[in-house]
Structure formats: structure tokens, C-alpha cells
What does this fold into?
Amino acid sequence: MKVEQKKWTVDLGWESVSDHNLSNVANLVFAFGNIEIIKSMDLFSELKSQYPNADIVISSTSGEIINNNVHDSSIVVSALFLEKTQIQCVQTNINHVKDSFDAGTHISADLEKDELKGVLLLGDAHDFNGDHLLTGIQINLSQHVPIIGGLSGGNSNQELNSLIGLNDKPKSGMVVAIGFSGDAIQFGCGVDYGWTPFGAEKFINRCNDNQLFEVDNKSIIDFYRQYLGNQINLMDEIPFYPLGIKSSGHSKRVIRTPLSIDESRSSITFTGNFNIGDSVRMMKTTKSGLISAAKETAINCKNQHNLDIADFVLVINCLERRNLLKDWSKDEIECVNSEFGSKTPLMGFYSHGEICPLIKNEKSLLHSQSLVIASIKEN
Amino acid sequence: MEKEYNEILQRQIEKYTGNNTIPDDFHKLLKNISDTYNDFEKDQELIERVMNVSSEELLDANQELKKINEEMDRFVYSTSHDLRAPLLSILGLLNIIEKDNKQYDIQGYLKLLRDSTVKLDKFISDIIDYSRNSRLDVEKKEVDIGEIINESFKHLNYLPGCSTLLKLINIDTKEKFYCDERRLTIIFNNLISNSIKYQNPDIKDSFVNIEVSIDENEMIVDIEDNGVGIEQAYLQKIFEMFYRASPDSKGSGLGLYIVKEAIQKLEGSIAVESTFGMGSKFSIVIPNLPRH
It folds into this structure.
């Protein structure tokens, strides 16, 4: 497997990051970029002319990641040439299906499942319920096949669509899945948060999908007020205090970040779904906690390839982490990059929901506030 | 510019740099350190507040457990005592019957056996009601109060004095009533059976008067009788578990306790007025649950 990378910035236009003459042989191209820039140029035609034989996947981001850099108004591109692996790209639009679950079942039905070793998934955070989308895909897919990816959105939690395209101009309401099949391909993946729970364990009494009403028979808004204090503007603070939920029988927590408050219904809407009876604690973190978690994730991911070095690393990083780390976000990415070595091409984007199995060989889950790493190696 | 630093850091800077000016290059570093100080202070406040909240919650939970434990202790003690009493009298009667002495009135013994068994059965079903009430969630549906009251009387018809008691029932329904039917049945069964059981034997025109009024917010019920009444001294205690107001009380001592617990589950209230020898009046308010 070979990978070459390039990037586009306002000041310098296109620049090559690494070049292996893959123009004619590249069979998969990822391009992540700022939504305004993607809108203003015909990125698809540009890439198609550079890589005429490749499947081209474009996604807008809330920040681009390439090797050890974080950008805001750029386009980052990786062209992959997989010599021994079959690649399948499938897509669906929310407007052509009933709902997120239905979109998932369409994606799953379109994927040839023999020898399938892993799926990369990119979806519009605004139009899809990530949990329902995953459930739809998983209904017809072995849980040993990892689904790794993320939901892209705007630069804030305001309701902004993303633009995603597969072999076409990017559009909103899209979900794209890339399946990798064959014996040669090897996937490593990992997810970690660096968040620690505090306060007593509570139980969820009333919820509806990603809307939470009550924990321990008390309004979720009162719960936040009681913990964070009455004087604050709740909406300013709660994104920094997500909930860590644990379903019965699971040992690890999954994070749900508050998106909006509805005072009239006494509810808070979160990044992912809840189930009645799940146990829940409030979470907090520090900058160093986030960065060391990123390092742990990278080490864990790297170790899945034994002593081999991965050919390509994809990073899906939650936008909220960037808001928390501020000028330390580059350090987080540098940490990940240095674990894989500077020669391993790495790219990624800031997201509004991350997808990865929490434990190897278990079902993929929707996360938030997390850093997901997928490493690919062709033997 | 330096004023924007965290207070402690500001003091440290003043203490250790004296009057020397700090080179501009250092402000970015100091700002970063200041942010870290602020974050730590905020974190500490948060943890302290949450520790207080959690400690109070723990205390409450502990108190609740203590109450439950005490109730459980009393429950086990009284239950085993009360369950044994009718069994012992059944055993005694069986001994006499086994002697097969024709002189004795077998039919009479059988009646006594039946009474003891009925008492035992009533006691066990009270325990079941108690356990159901504490275990089950409130199950909301539209209920017909008239039907529940009629069923109660039908169900209690076997009690001596039920047929001769004058029953006055007046139901004023302005709105449909949504509530938990099973708990309402428990409440009415117990209160009505008390009016039947504790009639004043000295008067002829014993009555029970049930007034119900329902609007969109609540149901108000008054159940009044001219029975034996309750002595003022006992009035506060009748809702306690296993409390019997008089030694010749016929019940399990659970009835009014279950009524109170069931009303609590429905978030309603109950009050009692009584004049010893003249009669009692129980007044209940139960909220009309929202339809959706």
C-alpha cells in the first residue's frame, strides 16, 4: 500500500506533502476541507483529473488534520493505492430513505460482506442520528467487522449541515461507507476520552432517543444546576461536562455531550441515544488528561499491528476537544503522530460524533468528546 | 495588562519580581499559567460542591434505608405473631375434633375454623397489597370511581352488618379521572370495610356517606360514618403500621397503613376527623394525573 498527500491553503494553493507518482494507480482518495472552500471550488473535478482511477471521498470538516498539523481553512488530501485489497464505496442520502436506521440498512445491504475486514463511515451530523444509523448497518453485519468513522458538521454545535460526496460533488444529508475486503488488509482502531467521572452514580428514568428528561427521578436540568451551581449560564458550561453512560453488563463508559436545553420540556438533547436504566455520572477533564488519552489511544492502536508500522492513519477527533484544548490541540495531534512515526501518513478531521468499537471485536458505538484512530496496514 | 492574571499568580509575580518589568515575551506563558490556576480553582469548587451534594444524597438514602429497615423489623415481628395466632386456634380446634367426641358441636367448631382461616387469608392479602404498593409503579388509566365503590361494597358483602348499613353515595364528575385503578381499589376497600366493621352497635340507623367530587386537577373524597369513632389520643397513630386503636379491633393493623402508603404513591393526602362514640370522617385528595 502506498499513500501520497497534498494540501490546499488560501495563501499557497496546492502543495505536495509527499509524492509517490500515484496519479494513475491511486484507487481511493480522501479529501477533507473547510466547508466554505469546498463550496467555492470544484474540488471533485480537480481531484478526478489528478486521480482518474480512484474512488473519491470528500467531506467538509470542523478543522482539518494532516500529519502533525491542525488547519482551519484548508483542504487535506490523501491518495491511497491498495494493491491487494478490494475497495467498495457505497452511499445513501437521507432524502432517499425513511430515517437514519433505514439509511443504515441500505448501506449494509449494498456492501458485499465476504472477506469484509473493516468499514470506514462518514456521515452528516445534522441529518443523521448516529446511533440509529449504526444500528441499521449492524443489523446485517458481523460485529467483528469494525465500523470506524465520524459525523461531520459545522464549526459549532449550531445546526449546520456538512457536505459529503462520493465520486461526485459533495452534498448535505449524505452518508458514505467504504468497505475493505481481502486477506491482506489489517485494521487497528482505538478510542479514548481522557474524561473522568465524578459525583454519585445515577440512573436514567426518562429519555427519548437522545433527549434526556430525568435521572434518579429528578429533572436533568436540575441535576446540572445542582452540580455546576445556580449562578452560571448553563448552556455555556454544560458542553464541558458531558455524561458518561454505562449500560448494564458493560464495564466502560460511553460519553454523551449536551447539545441544547429545552426548559419548557425540562430536557437536554445530547449527541447520542440513552436507554432507561443506564447508569450515568457526570464527567470532567483537563488538558493534560485529554492529551495523555490521545497518546494511549495511539499506542493501543499501533500495538494491534504487532511490530509492523501502519501504512495510513485516519484520525477522527471531536470538535469539543479542540474547544477545550485551544492552543494545545496541535500538541494532541503531534502526540498521536509521533507514536506512529513521522513517516506514517496521517490525516483526519474534527467531528461531531465519532464511531469505533469500544472494545476490540465488539460492536461499534457512537462516541462523543473522543479521539478515534483507525490505522490501516496492507501486508 | 497584568491585572488579568489569576489573583494568586498576580501576587506571586509581585512578590518575586518586585518592581522589575516582565518582558512582553513572558506574558503568553503567564497567561497560560494563569488559565491553569483558574481551571484548578474552578475544578476544586466543583468537586467540593458535588461532594456536598453527594454527601447529602448519601445521608438521605441512609435515612430512607433506616426507615425501611425499622419497618421491616416491626413487620417481621408482628407478622409472625399475627400469622401464628389464628393457626394456633385452628390447631386447637383440630385437636378437639380429632377426639371425635359426639357430645361436641362439630358444626360450631367448623365455623370457628372458618373464621380463623378467613382472618388468616385477609391478613395475607393485606400483606400482598402492602408489598404490591411498595413494589409497583403507578399505572395510569381512566377510572370509573362509581364502579370501584360498587365493587368494594359487593366484595365486602360477606362482612356482618354490610347489608343493613345505609349507603349514601354521591359522585360529582366534572372531568374524566386518570389514576391508578389498583391503588384506588385498595384505598376504597379498606376505608369502606372500616365503616362496615366499626358500626355503633347501640344505634339502628348506621350509615356511611361517600361524597366524591372530581375536576381536572384532583379528586376529593369524604367518607363519613356514624360508627364507634376513634379516641382523640389514638387519632394520630392510626396510620402507623400494625397500630390497632382498640384491643377488640378486628383487623390486621395494616389497613390504614396501606391506605396511607398508597395515597402517598399517588401523591395525594389523607386526613381524619373523629368523635369517639359519634363517628369518623376520612377526607382524601388525589391528583388527577395528566392524560399523556
The interface with chain B takes residues 198-200, 226-229, 282, 284, 286 of chain A (CB under 8 Å). The longest helix of chain A spans residues 287-303.
